[in-house]
Amino acid sequence: MMGKGSELSRDGDWSVLRVWGEVDLSWSQDVRKQVLDAYTKAKSLAVQLDGVSYIDSSGIAALVEGFQHARAKGGRFALLAPSESVRAVLELARLDRVFPIFSDLAAARAA
Amino acid sequence: MNDTAAPLIDVVGLEAYYGRRRILHGVDFSVRRGEIRVIMGGSGSGKSTLLRHIIGLQRPVSGMVKILGVDVGRASAQELLTVRRRLGVSFQGGALITSMSVGDNVALPLREHTQLDETTVRIMSRLKLEFVNLGGFHDLMPSQLSGGMIKRAALARAIVMDPELLFFDEPSAGLDPVVSAELDELILRLRDALRMTIVVVTHELESAFRIADRITVLDQGDVLTTGTVAEVHASEN
């Protein structure tokens, strides 16, 4: 994986959005759009974050919106394998206790 | 920290005057990416004047001030504006707008300087209030906050745009030791989690020693010493 980017795929009844690189104000609105679009394809969304080297609060805001959308529509939302730098921001915002965080999709499904 | 990278702030031979009185006597000062730099000095040492030059509120009469690669003395108004959007400043008195709620104060820079969706703006401002332990205070007015809360709310506004460079003027002034220590801890976490480079102006020794990677001590317009906490401790100055 080079630079930054994202890729949306389908795995059973889940959408999986894989994001990598630095998620900042320059393209966090694209990530937000993909998060919301993902719910048109499946009721539940997992965002894979192991390749994210940095995330700012606009990127976190996109995840919060995804989480809120799932709760409002009766779907599920999960973060998969957030990197250390993502975890640090989640902890600062105390969202590590709010977001369902799993090592992989199988663990999210089983929860 | 990367010692070989160009400094985010580079001040060379800065002189400043108020009328005919010379306030800064050829100050050299540089800050590296990811660093927490504390500027210390007593009243009249020139630390506030240095800060005003670094954040581009005052153009240098003599000497050079570069912020994020932009020469403040030669930059156009538009270039200065662009640089300022990459900075966050938390002023000593908080400078919150008293007629707006805490949340609206924090959201203001996002509404003024970005085209972000309103939902994102609201989430980002609430996140920043959560960062500074004011999660439930979004709808309160500034007059309903204590002194320490006002400082934290001002900090939330200063960081709402995720600035590369954060300036914090006297964070501990007027705070009790426990609240002051909590604020110091928060400054350290902001640097680590959000990769901010932070410049703190303070006269509180204990706070400076807790947070600084390097300390610059000013005295009557001259740099008395610059070094790590251990080096400043050991300095005869």
What does this structure look like?
The complex is a heterodimer of chains A (111) and B (237). The longest helix of chain A is centred in the middle third of the chain and has 17 residues. Helix content of chain A is 39%, strand content 32%. The model of chain A has no long low-confidence stretch (mean pLDDT 93). Chain A has 111 residues and is an alpha/beta fold. Chain A has one domain: STAS domain (Transcription Regulator spoIIAA), CATH 3.30.750.24. Chain A has a 5-stranded mixed sheet with strand order 1-2-3-4-5. Chain B has a domain of 59 residues. Chain B contains 8 helices and 10 strands. Chain B is α/β, with parallel strands linked by helices and 237 residues long. In chain B, 36% of the residues lie in helices and 26% in strands. Chains A and B meet through α1, α2 and α3 of A and α4 and α6 of B.
Classify the beta-strand content of chain B into a percent band.
Answer: 25-35%
Spatial strand order of the main sheet of chain A: 1-2-3-4-5
Biggest chain pair interface: A-B, 22 and 21 residues
Strand order, sheet with most strands of chain B: 6-7-8-3-9-10
User: What is the 3D shape of chain A?
Assistant: globular
Multimerization state? heterodimer
What's the number of structural domains of chain A? 1
What would you call the structural class of chain A? alpha/beta
Query: What is the averaged pLDDT score of chain A?
Result: 93
The CATH homologous superfamily of chain A is termed STAS domain
Helix content of chain A: 25-40%
